[in-house]
Specification:
Layout (H helix, E strand, L loop, with lengths): L1 H8 L6 H7 L11 H8 L9 H9 L14 H8 L12 H10 L8 H7 L22 H4 L4 H5 L22 H4 L4 H8 L7 H12 L11 H6 L9 H7 L12 H10 L16 H25 L32 H4 L19 H7 L4 H17 L8 H19 L9 H12 L6 H18 L6 H8 L2 H8 L10 E6 L6 E6 L2 H10 L2 H16 L2
Antiparallel strand pairs: 1-2
Helix pairs in contact: 1-5, 12-16, 16-18, 16-20, 16-22, 19-20, 21-22, 21-26, 24-26
Length: 545
């Protein structure tokens, strides 16, 4: 506990004038840092007699209420359990230092290509050097706290420039009225707040780092992988959130009265005002929504990197950027009669293929959104043609070719997140996951998407919100699902123990670092035929009543 408090409070001050001196293009809103958030979001709202409560009133924070809308201990979870708090300091470990030498970067923890994801501090506030952050910022906890609150929700302070007098969201967000019920559009345009209330918005925000976002300079390159950057696992929203772990209270877990008030007053119909039920399969639905967003964002990232006119805030890699394509299509053992040779070939032989995992759950998501699978095939065909015509596709055509499909996927995701997924449909969906799993010889990352989806669905169907007969049906296939799960690394928090220095301190804490000796062998040993056969067995049990 003491270490987590030090992580939050041990701040080295940086003034607005210093930021302005470093970069004339500093962001309009100020990045305040987690030390401001800790006043309410570590151990609850301060009591009336506390000095902190008086200080908050002096600053203008009045009328704050705790009606269990949020947990108010978010920073405790973040500091003690969340790897996002370790994002910056991981750049100081042995692997990162070795990467720096191979990449020709003397201090890789100052490289903006890395900092784009390894801290929430804005790149625009890191000075004018196109590659390196100023050395004096290394010890500033706004940087070294890694990805804290504003790393996801956006800088919260008022404008730092006199000519841009705009309000941040730090003060307004503490007032229940009107903040809680404002539209996401108003929160963004008026206060600069990034709302991640909806599954599609949440997935899109997470994917900026866990997949990539060229506009924000968040690009993991083939060169970085070659130097030793751990492979980015395919992103699945519900599974990643559970492993963070969650520092928020899901909407269906909020008190009945608070939830009803929100559904009545909210400017956005975020949860399906007329169809929301607490016992709907909310997490499983978010899996399907995020699948559509992942597919869309993967295409958009590839197009941005291919487009010569598209500018990025960090050095843009040359095209083709091999990290956008299927890694293990090249990086695998050559085995005679392997499952790779038995797969149905799509496209021209020898052509590089886009990474496959964002597509694995798309057909299920399209079906449950009520859309036509033929429309998906129709919109995908021009992209397949682009990749078949020449290796990596003609770069000047990428944007035009992907545009119809990405727009369709985005609209479908918005529609699906407001469409209830009823608990009664759970077993049918589990059967559909099994059918997709046995329909092809899926690569490791794609297969893991299907397993994560089944895992999330099983967890929801096994809860007390299901009746006894449904829980019994799920329990009957528990052993089969567990057997399939053994083929994969599903818990991304597992790794090797290491000591990591606390920012601004001589003390250290124990952390878990990615252990490639644990994560890579299952990929090398993976056999798609075994995966398919195990799901086929499971499918047979699901169809037998």
């Amino acid at each position: 506990m003491r270490s987590s408090l030090f992580l939050i409070f041990g701040l080295t001050a940086i003034t607005t004038s210093q930021l302005a001196a470093q970069d004339k293009h500093a962001p309009a809103r100020a990045f305040l840092g987690a030390t401001e958030c800790v006043k309410c979001h570590f151990s609850g709202l301060p009591k009336a007699e506390d000095a902190n409560s008086v200080a908050l009133e002096v600053l203008g924070f009045t009328g704050m209420v705790n009606d269990s809308w949020v947990l108010l201990d978010e920073l405790k979870t973040w500091a003690n359990q969340d790897k996002h708090a370790q994002a910056f300091t991981s750049l100081l470990n042995e692997r990162s230092q070795r990467m720096g030498k191979l990449l020709g970067v003397e201090e890789i923890h100052r490289d903006k290509r890395c900092l784009a994801c390894h801290t929430g501090y804005p790149l625009a506030a890191m000075g004018g050097d196109p590659q390196l952050m100023p050395a004096e910022l290394v010890k500033n906890l706004k940087v070294s706290q890694g990805v804290s609150c504003e790393g996801c929700h956006a800088p919260s302070g008022d404008a730092t420039k006199e000519e841009n007098k705009v309000s941040g969201w730090y003060m307004p967000h503490a007032q229940k009225e009107p903040w809680r019920f404002l539209s996401e559009k108003d929160k963004s345009e008026k206060f600069g707040f990034t709302s991640i209330r909806s599954a599609s918005a949440r997935a899109r925000m997470c994917l900026t780092c866990h997949l990539g976002n060229a506009a924000e300079g968040k690009i993991v390159t083939h060169e970085m992988y070659a130097a030793g950057h751990p492979p980015l696992p395919g992103f699945e929203l519900a599974s990643f959130a559970a492993q963070m772990p969650k520092h928020w209270r899901d909407f269906d877990k909020k008190p009945d009265g608070v939830r009803a008030e929100f559904l009545e007053k909210s400017a956005d119909d975020s949860y399906g005002r007329s169809s929301f039920k607490p016992d709907n399969l909310h997490e499983t639905n978010s899996v399907l929504v995020a699948a559509l967003v992942s597919f869309s964002e993967n295409l958009r990232l590839s197009a941005s990197l291919a487009d010569e006119r598209f500018t990025t805030p960090v050095a843009k890699p040359d095209w083709p950027e091999l990290a956008q394509f299927e890694c293990f299509a090249c990086h695998h053992d050559l085995k005679d009669r392997s499952w790779r040779q038995r797969r149905t070939l799509r496209g021209a032989p020898g052509r590089p293929l886009l990474r496959a995992w964002p597509i694995a759950l798309t057909s299920l998501a399209v079906k449950h959104a009520g859309a036509d699978a033929k429309e998906l095939d129709k919109l995908w065909q021009p992209i397949e043609k682009l990749l078949n015509e020449q290796p990596f596709g003609r770069r000047e055509r990428w944007n035009d070719v992907i545009d119809p499909l990405t727009k369709w996927l985005d609209e479908l995701a918005l529609s699906l997140e407001r469409k209830p997924l009823l608990r009664d449909a759970g077993l049918t969906l589990l059967q559909e996951i099994a059918t997709v799993a046995e329909s092809d010889l899926w690569d490791y990352d794609s297969a893991r998407q299907l397993v994560w989806a089944a895992q999330v669905l099983r967890r929801e169907l096994s809860s007390d919100r299901s009746d006894e007969s449904l829980r019994t049906r799920v329990a009957a296939i528990e052993a089969d699902l567990t057997d399939i799960e053994k083929l994969f690394v599903l818990n991304l928090n597992e790794g090797r123990a290491a000591q990591q220095k606390l920012p601004g301190s001589t003390k250290s804490r124990e952390v878990k670092e990615v252990d490639l000796e644990k994560t890579l062998p299952p990929i090398a040993d993976y056999d798609a035929s075994t995966f398919r056969d195990k799901f086929r067995k499971l499918s047979g049990k699901l169809t037998t009543k």
